[in-house]
Amino acid sequence: MITPRPGLKVVLATQPIDFRKGVHGLVALVAEALKADPYCGDVFVFRSKRKDRLKLLVWDGSGLILATKWLEDGGFPWPPVRDGAVRLSAVQFALLLDGLEWRAAAPPPVKTPRWMG
Asked: Which Pfam families would you find in this protein's record (predicted)?
């Protein structure tokens, strides 16, 4: 289980992905498009076009975890779609996973440039 904890780094991809991608496809996106290390322990969050599904990718020290969450009703709150990624705090991440509004939770997300260019 991915537990929201203080100091947890969460990177939210603002662009929707092809939800057929598996572990290897998402690792390639993280490494090539984000220029990040998919094995660093950060949580990488991706969404479907319909905003009702999330995929989480995280290295737990012994292997990669790929988790998927569907909402039965409604969609996940998401920043405007543009190139880049948004960093979330542990509190914002917990709110996002519950399908609640996280964008007003302090601290505000910090945009990182050039996500899927």
From this structure: TnpB_IS66 (PF05717)
pLDDT of 99 > 60? The answer is: yes
Phi then psi for 67, rounded to 5 degrees? Answer: -120, 145
Tokens of 61: 């020290």
pTM score, whole prediction:
0.80
Q: Quick one: tokens of 103?
A: 């964008």
For residue 75, the Cα-to-chain-centroid distance in whole angstroms is: 15
- Rounded distance, CA 94 to CA 84, Å? 21
One-letter amino acid at 100 equals L
